[in-house]
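Contributing new records

If you add data, match the layout below exactly. Sequence lines come first and carry their own label; structure lines follow with theirs. Keep one chain per record. Anything else will be rejected by the validation script.
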Amino acid sequence: MEKIKSLADLKKKREELQTSSQLLSQSESIQVRVAMATCSIASGAKQVLEVIVSECNKRSIPVSVTQTGCMGYCYAEPTVEVTKPGHEPVVFGYITPLKAEELVTKYFVGNEMLEGVIPVNYEKVEL
């Protein structure tokens, strides 16, 4: 990674990142939001995020992975919200790195629902 030495470098990097994130249209890619609040991180959310990104890259799955704050499901951390194009968002709880890999292979690719869905009183996370 190149070093940022000035404000101009920082602005250039910001523009590059914004452009690359806009390449995937929300209507064409899977939107993934990984809760990264204190309880999430303590439960292993960072490793879950890394596995999701890695597995999607291996399979060339069009996905946009972002971090969010608390989703309010501390009892089920780490939690991951997945919105597939044309579908309502689904929140999965108790996601381990192994289950994150299974989430990609079974739900993202195979449309197979996994255990751990948090169904009650859920509202979409707005960015």
